[in-house]
Amino acid sequence: MYQYYNRIFNILLIIVLLLSNVTYADASESMHQIGSDIVVGLLKTEKETYPHELGLFQSIYEMFNSFGVRTVFIDCNKIINLKKIQEELLSLLKQDEMLAKKLILDRIKIEIGQFIKGHKINRIFIPENYYNLHSEPFPPTPCCQLVTEAIVKIVDDNPTIHLLSICGGLQGIMSAKGIEVVHVENFVSDEEQRRSHLKSAPNPQQEDVTFQQIKIVPNSHLAKVVAKFLLPDKNGWFSTCFPDAHSGTVNNRPENRRKLELLGYKIAAFSNDGVIEAIEDKHGNIYFQSHPEALVVKSDKNLHLSNHKARQVSTLVAMAIINDFLYRA
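User: That's the sequence. What structure does it adopt?
Assistant: C-alpha coordinates below.
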Protein backbone atom coordinates (compact mmCIF):
# COMPACT_ATOMS: atom_id res chain seq x y z
CA MET A 1 0.00 0.00 0.00
CA TYR A 2 2.86 2.39 0.89
CA GLN A 3 4.53 1.73 -2.46
CA TYR A 4 1.26 2.44 -4.24
CA TYR A 5 0.83 5.82 -2.54
CA ASN A 6 4.47 6.65 -3.07
CA ARG A 7 4.09 5.91 -6.79
CA ILE A 8 1.02 8.14 -6.93
CA PHE A 9 2.91 10.90 -5.11
CA ASN A 10 5.82 10.65 -7.57
CA ILE A 11 3.43 10.96 -10.51
CA LEU A 12 1.74 13.97 -8.94
CA LEU A 13 5.10 15.56 -8.23
CA ILE A 14 6.14 15.21 -11.87
CA ILE A 15 2.84 16.79 -12.94
CA VAL A 16 3.29 19.63 -10.47
CA LEU A 17 6.85 20.24 -11.62
CA LEU A 18 5.77 20.32 -15.25
CA LEU A 19 2.81 22.59 -14.56
CA SER A 20 4.93 24.82 -12.37
CA ASN A 21 7.52 25.27 -15.10
CA VAL A 22 4.80 25.99 -17.64
CA THR A 23 3.04 28.37 -15.25
CA TYR A 24 6.18 30.31 -14.47
CA ALA A 25 7.10 30.47 -18.15
CA ASP A 26 3.62 31.51 -19.34
CA ALA A 27 3.19 34.01 -16.55
CA SER A 28 6.61 35.64 -16.84
CA GLU A 29 5.40 38.61 -18.89
CA SER A 30 2.41 39.31 -16.64
CA MET A 31 4.61 38.88 -13.57
CA HIS A 32 6.94 41.54 -14.92
CA GLN A 33 3.95 43.85 -15.40
CA ILE A 34 2.82 43.24 -11.83
CA GLY A 35 6.38 43.53 -10.61
CA SER A 36 6.76 47.01 -12.10
CA ASP A 37 4.91 48.36 -9.05
CA ILE A 38 7.02 46.40 -6.57
CA VAL A 39 10.30 47.77 -5.26
CA VAL A 40 12.38 45.61 -2.91
CA GLY A 41 14.75 47.33 -0.51
CA LEU A 42 17.71 45.01 0.09
CA LEU A 43 19.53 45.80 3.33
CA LYS A 44 23.29 45.55 2.79
CA THR A 45 26.53 46.77 4.28
CA GLU A 46 29.36 48.80 2.84
CA LYS A 47 32.01 46.11 3.06
CA GLU A 48 32.26 42.37 3.47
CA THR A 49 32.18 41.17 7.09
CA TYR A 50 31.93 37.39 6.52
CA PRO A 51 32.97 35.05 3.69
CA HIS A 52 31.00 35.25 0.42
CA GLU A 53 28.85 38.16 1.69
CA LEU A 54 29.17 40.37 -1.39
CA GLY A 55 28.56 37.44 -3.72
CA LEU A 56 25.46 36.41 -1.75
CA PHE A 57 24.11 39.98 -1.92
CA GLN A 58 24.63 40.03 -5.69
CA SER A 59 22.87 36.66 -6.10
CA ILE A 60 19.86 37.88 -4.11
CA TYR A 61 19.79 41.11 -6.13
CA GLU A 62 19.75 39.09 -9.36
CA MET A 63 17.11 36.75 -7.93
CA PHE A 64 14.68 39.62 -7.38
CA ASN A 65 15.45 41.00 -10.84
CA SER A 66 14.49 37.61 -12.29
CA PHE A 67 11.10 38.02 -10.61
CA GLY A 68 10.63 41.25 -12.54
CA VAL A 69 10.84 43.61 -9.58
CA ARG A 70 13.16 46.55 -9.02
CA THR A 71 15.69 46.25 -6.21
CA VAL A 72 17.22 49.15 -4.29
CA PHE A 73 20.17 48.70 -1.94
CA ILE A 74 19.57 50.07 1.56
CA ASP A 75 23.24 50.58 2.38
CA CYS A 76 23.12 51.59 6.04
CA ASN A 77 26.67 52.95 6.00
CA LYS A 78 25.91 55.32 3.13
CA ILE A 79 22.38 56.41 4.05
CA ILE A 80 23.11 57.05 7.72
CA ASN A 81 26.05 59.01 9.14
CA LEU A 82 25.90 57.46 12.58
CA LYS A 83 28.99 59.29 13.87
CA LYS A 84 27.50 62.66 12.94
CA ILE A 85 24.18 61.84 14.59
CA GLN A 86 25.92 60.65 17.75
CA GLU A 87 28.10 63.77 17.91
CA GLU A 88 25.08 66.04 17.51
CA LEU A 89 23.41 64.27 20.44
CA LEU A 90 26.57 63.89 22.52
CA SER A 91 25.48 66.35 25.18
CA LEU A 92 22.20 64.48 25.63
CA LEU A 93 24.10 61.21 25.73
CA LYS A 94 26.01 62.43 28.78
CA GLN A 95 22.84 63.58 30.51
CA ASP A 96 20.43 60.77 29.71
CA GLU A 97 21.67 57.70 27.87
CA MET A 98 18.21 56.17 27.35
CA LEU A 99 16.81 59.42 25.96
CA ALA A 100 19.79 59.84 23.65
CA LYS A 101 19.40 56.28 22.29
CA LYS A 102 15.71 56.92 21.63
CA LEU A 103 16.45 60.19 19.83
CA ILE A 104 19.18 58.53 17.74
CA LEU A 105 16.76 55.76 16.71
CA ASP A 106 14.00 58.29 15.95
CA ARG A 107 16.40 60.27 13.77
CA ILE A 108 17.50 57.13 11.90
CA LYS A 109 13.88 56.05 11.45
CA ILE A 110 13.09 59.43 9.84
CA GLU A 111 16.04 59.21 7.45
CA ILE A 112 15.36 55.58 6.50
CA GLY A 113 11.66 56.38 6.12
CA GLN A 114 12.48 59.20 3.73
CA PHE A 115 14.75 56.90 1.72
CA ILE A 116 12.04 54.22 1.51
CA LYS A 117 9.41 56.75 0.48
CA GLY A 118 11.72 58.45 -2.03
CA HIS A 119 12.48 55.15 -3.77
CA LYS A 120 8.88 53.88 -3.47
CA ILE A 121 10.07 50.76 -1.65
CA ASN A 122 7.21 48.47 -0.61
CA ARG A 123 9.14 45.26 0.11
CA ILE A 124 12.20 44.98 2.36
CA PHE A 125 14.53 41.98 2.44
CA ILE A 126 16.99 41.69 5.32
CA PRO A 127 19.54 39.02 4.39
CA GLU A 128 21.91 37.14 6.62
CA ASN A 129 24.56 39.07 8.50
CA TYR A 130 27.21 38.25 11.05
CA TYR A 131 25.17 38.83 14.19
CA ASN A 132 27.22 39.23 17.38
CA LEU A 133 25.93 37.43 20.45
CA HIS A 134 28.81 38.44 22.68
CA SER A 135 28.86 42.21 23.10
CA GLU A 136 27.78 45.53 21.68
CA PRO A 137 28.17 47.16 19.24
CA PHE A 138 26.30 44.66 17.10
CA PRO A 139 28.10 43.84 13.85
CA PRO A 140 28.46 44.26 11.00
CA THR A 141 28.28 47.82 12.36
CA PRO A 142 26.20 49.49 15.09
CA CYS A 143 24.53 51.33 12.22
CA CYS A 144 23.24 48.13 10.63
CA GLN A 145 21.46 47.01 13.79
CA LEU A 146 19.98 50.49 14.31
CA VAL A 147 18.77 50.55 10.71
CA THR A 148 17.21 47.10 11.20
CA GLU A 149 15.41 48.37 14.29
CA ALA A 150 14.20 51.45 12.39
CA ILE A 151 12.90 49.24 9.54
CA VAL A 152 10.98 47.08 12.02
CA LYS A 153 9.31 50.20 13.44
CA ILE A 154 8.50 51.50 9.96
CA VAL A 155 6.89 48.17 8.97
CA ASP A 156 4.97 48.10 12.27
CA ASP A 157 3.53 51.51 11.36
CA ASN A 158 2.92 50.60 7.71
CA PRO A 159 2.02 46.90 7.20
CA THR A 160 1.62 47.44 3.43
CA ILE A 161 5.42 47.19 3.35
CA HIS A 162 6.25 43.47 3.36
CA LEU A 163 9.29 42.27 5.29
CA LEU A 164 11.32 39.09 4.79
CA SER A 165 14.47 38.30 6.76
CA ILE A 166 17.01 35.49 6.74
CA CYS A 167 19.36 34.05 9.39
CA GLY A 168 21.16 36.97 11.08
CA GLY A 169 18.36 39.20 9.79
CA LEU A 170 15.88 37.27 11.93
CA GLN A 171 18.20 37.55 14.94
CA GLY A 172 18.59 41.28 14.42
CA ILE A 173 14.82 41.81 14.28
CA MET A 174 14.26 39.74 17.39
CA SER A 175 17.00 41.64 19.25
CA ALA A 176 15.36 44.90 18.20
CA LYS A 177 12.15 43.67 19.82
CA GLY A 178 13.90 42.65 23.04
CA ILE A 179 13.67 38.91 22.32
CA GLU A 180 16.62 36.89 23.62
CA VAL A 181 19.00 35.40 21.07
CA VAL A 182 21.43 32.72 22.31
CA HIS A 183 24.08 30.37 20.95
CA VAL A 184 22.73 27.08 19.64
CA GLU A 185 25.15 25.33 22.00
CA ASN A 186 23.31 26.91 24.95
CA PHE A 187 20.08 25.30 23.82
CA VAL A 188 21.15 22.06 22.11
CA SER A 189 23.32 19.74 24.18
CA ASP A 190 24.10 17.13 21.52
CA GLU A 191 27.26 18.00 19.57
CA GLU A 192 26.05 16.39 16.34
CA GLN A 193 22.77 18.30 16.47
CA ARG A 194 24.65 21.56 17.06
CA ARG A 195 26.81 20.90 14.00
CA SER A 196 23.70 20.15 11.95
CA HIS A 197 22.77 23.85 12.03
CA LEU A 198 26.04 24.69 10.30
CA LYS A 199 25.59 22.10 7.54
CA SER A 200 25.51 24.73 4.81
CA ALA A 201 28.23 27.03 6.15
CA PRO A 202 29.96 29.10 4.99
CA ASN A 203 28.00 29.46 1.74
CA PRO A 204 24.36 28.24 1.76
CA GLN A 205 24.08 29.03 -1.96
CA GLN A 206 26.79 26.55 -2.87
CA GLU A 207 25.61 23.58 -4.90
CA ASP A 208 25.04 20.23 -3.14
CA VAL A 209 25.11 21.66 0.39
CA THR A 210 23.45 19.48 3.01
CA PHE A 211 19.95 20.55 4.10
CA GLN A 212 18.31 20.82 7.50
CA GLN A 213 14.76 19.52 7.90
CA ILE A 214 12.22 21.96 9.30
CA LYS A 215 8.70 21.21 10.54
CA ILE A 216 6.07 23.84 9.79
CA VAL A 217 3.39 24.58 12.39
CA PRO A 218 -0.20 23.77 11.35
CA ASN A 219 -2.50 26.74 10.56
CA SER A 220 0.42 29.19 10.37
CA HIS A 221 0.66 31.57 7.44
CA LEU A 222 3.77 29.68 6.34
CA ALA A 223 1.76 26.44 6.31
CA LYS A 224 -0.74 28.02 3.92
CA VAL A 225 2.07 29.21 1.66
CA VAL A 226 3.74 25.80 1.36
CA ALA A 227 0.56 23.71 1.16
CA LYS A 228 0.58 23.89 -2.65
CA PHE A 229 3.69 21.69 -2.80
CA LEU A 230 3.68 19.71 0.45
CA LEU A 231 1.38 17.14 2.03
CA PRO A 232 0.72 17.44 5.78
CA ASP A 233 1.15 14.57 8.20
CA LYS A 234 -1.82 13.23 10.16
CA ASN A 235 -1.46 16.07 12.69
CA GLY A 236 -1.35 18.82 10.08
CA TRP A 237 2.41 19.48 10.20
CA PHE A 238 4.38 20.05 6.98
CA SER A 239 8.04 19.09 6.55
CA THR A 240 10.58 20.46 4.12
CA CYS A 241 14.36 20.98 3.95
CA PHE A 242 16.42 24.15 3.50
CA PRO A 243 20.10 25.06 3.72
CA ASP A 244 21.02 26.04 7.27
CA ALA A 245 24.11 27.94 8.51
CA HIS A 246 23.86 29.57 11.93
CA SER A 247 25.36 29.35 15.40
CA GLY A 248 22.80 31.64 17.05
CA THR A 249 19.09 31.08 17.60
CA VAL A 250 16.06 32.65 19.24
CA ASN A 251 15.80 31.26 22.75
CA ASN A 252 13.01 28.66 22.79
CA ARG A 253 12.43 28.74 26.53
CA PRO A 254 8.82 29.33 27.70
CA GLU A 255 9.38 32.87 29.00
CA ASN A 256 10.94 33.98 25.71
CA ARG A 257 8.13 32.37 23.71
CA ARG A 258 5.54 34.13 25.86
CA LYS A 259 7.25 37.44 25.12
CA LEU A 260 7.12 36.63 21.42
CA GLU A 261 3.40 35.97 21.61
CA LEU A 262 2.72 39.15 23.60
CA LEU A 263 4.48 41.12 20.86
CA GLY A 264 2.24 39.54 18.21
CA TYR A 265 4.67 36.97 16.81
CA LYS A 266 4.14 33.26 16.25
CA ILE A 267 6.66 30.47 15.82
CA ALA A 268 6.07 29.06 12.34
CA ALA A 269 8.68 26.27 12.13
CA PHE A 270 11.10 24.20 14.22
CA SER A 271 14.00 21.91 13.46
CA ASN A 272 13.92 18.36 14.79
CA ASP A 273 15.89 19.35 17.89
CA GLY A 274 13.47 22.16 18.81
CA VAL A 275 15.47 25.10 17.45
CA ILE A 276 13.17 27.84 16.12
CA GLU A 277 13.52 27.97 12.32
CA ALA A 278 10.82 30.49 11.34
CA ILE A 279 8.80 33.24 13.02
CA GLU A 280 5.92 35.22 11.54
CA ASP A 281 4.12 38.39 12.54
CA LYS A 282 0.42 39.23 12.45
CA HIS A 283 0.75 40.75 8.96
CA GLY A 284 2.09 37.56 7.35
CA ASN A 285 5.75 38.60 7.29
CA ILE A 286 8.02 35.59 7.82
CA TYR A 287 11.51 35.56 9.29
CA PHE A 288 13.66 32.48 8.60
CA GLN A 289 16.64 31.11 10.46
CA SER A 290 17.35 28.85 7.47
CA HIS A 291 17.96 29.86 3.83
CA PRO A 292 15.06 29.27 1.40
CA GLU A 293 16.36 32.10 -0.79
CA ALA A 294 19.51 30.06 -1.52
CA LEU A 295 17.36 27.49 -3.37
CA VAL A 296 15.61 30.16 -5.42
CA VAL A 297 18.95 31.64 -6.46
CA LYS A 298 19.85 28.20 -7.86
CA SER A 299 16.31 27.30 -8.97
CA ASP A 300 17.20 26.75 -12.64
CA LYS A 301 19.52 23.91 -11.66
CA ASN A 302 17.55 22.60 -8.67
CA LEU A 303 14.31 22.12 -10.59
CA HIS A 304 16.02 19.95 -13.20
CA LEU A 305 17.84 17.58 -10.86
CA SER A 306 15.68 14.56 -11.69
CA ASN A 307 17.48 12.35 -9.18
CA HIS A 308 16.95 14.81 -6.30
CA LYS A 309 13.19 14.87 -5.79
CA ALA A 310 13.45 16.37 -2.30
CA ARG A 311 15.60 19.25 -3.58
CA GLN A 312 13.07 19.92 -6.35
CA VAL A 313 10.18 20.06 -3.88
CA SER A 314 12.16 22.26 -1.46
CA THR A 315 12.96 24.63 -4.32
CA LEU A 316 9.28 24.92 -5.26
CA VAL A 317 8.44 25.61 -1.62
CA ALA A 318 11.14 28.29 -1.47
CA MET A 319 9.80 29.90 -4.64
CA ALA A 320 6.31 29.95 -3.10
CA ILE A 321 7.77 31.79 -0.09
CA ILE A 322 9.42 34.44 -2.28
CA ASN A 323 6.22 34.78 -4.32
CA ASP A 324 4.24 35.34 -1.13
CA PHE A 325 6.69 38.03 -0.03
CA LEU A 326 6.49 39.82 -3.36
CA TYR A 327 2.88 39.40 -4.45
CA ARG A 328 0.53 38.78 -1.52
CA ALA A 329 -2.10 41.45 -1.03
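The CA atoms of residues 205 and 304 lie 17 Å apart.
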